[in-house]
Amino acid sequence: MVPKAKHNSSKLWFFILQKSDNSLFVQFTLVYTIFILIYVDDIIITGSSLHEIQKLISKLRLCFSLKDLDPLHYFLGVEVKHLPHGGLDLSQQKYITNLLHRTNMHATKPLPTPMQTNLRLQKDASHALHDPLQFRFVVDALQYIVITRPELSFAVNKVCQFMHNPQENHGRQ
Predict the structure, then answer these.
(1) What is the tens place of the pLDDT at every residue in 46-84?
(2) Are residues 35 and 105 in the same domain?
(3) pLDDT digits (tens, 9 = 90+) for 95-115
(4) Domain shared by 12 and 54, yes or no
C-alpha cells in the first residue's frame, strides 16, 4: 500500500500485504515496525515507534478523513485490555456469552476439555439435522472464537468437517 500524499514527499511508504491475512499490512525497517489492520472502514495502526505511527497517521489524514478513537478497546468482537507493562489482553468473553445465549446454552456447565478425547464423529451415524443453517452458524462462530481460544481449534476442526451434511449427533457432542 502506497498512499498518494497531496504534498511533496520523497520517501515512499511501502507496506507488505501479509499472506496470512489479506487485511494486514506491515512495514519493516531496521529501526521500527508498523502494522496496519484494515477491516472495511475500521483501521488499527500499531508498531514499535509512536513517532513513526504519528507520521503515518498525519500522511493518511492528507488523503482520507480519519477519526481517531484513541486507545483500542474493542475490535470485531475482540475486547482489548491494556496491561501495565505495555502488553495487551485479548478476550472474546462478550462474544462467547452472546453466542451461548443465542444457542440457548448459557445454562450449561463448563468442562475441563472442549471435547471428549475418544470421541469419533461419523458422517452417517444419525439423522441429518432439520436446520443445518443453525449448525453452520454455530460452527462459523466457533471458528472466530479460536482467535483468542486456540485450545478449541481441534474440536472446532472436527465439527467443521461435517458442515456440508451435519447430523444430529454432531451438534450434541
Answers:
(1) 889 999 999 999 988 898 888 887 788 888 889 999 899
(2) no
(3) 989 988 988 888 888 877 776
(4) yes
Q: Say how far apart CA 133 and CA 166 lie, in whole Å.
A: 9
* Structural domain count of the chain: 2
Categorise residue 77: left if φ over 0, alpha if ψ from -120 to 50, beta otherwise: left
Specify the amino acid at residue 106: H
Task: From residue 26, give the alpha-carbon distance in Å to each of 5, 37, 42, 62, 106.
Answer: 19, 9, 16, 20, 39
- Note the pLDDT of residue 147: 87
- Domain presence at residue 102: yes
Chain centroid offset of residue 144 CA: 6
- Parent domain of 164: 91-172
* Run of H or E residues at 73: none
Q: Where are the alpha helices (DSSP H) in 111-152?
A: 132-145
Whether residue 82 lies inside any domain: the answer is no
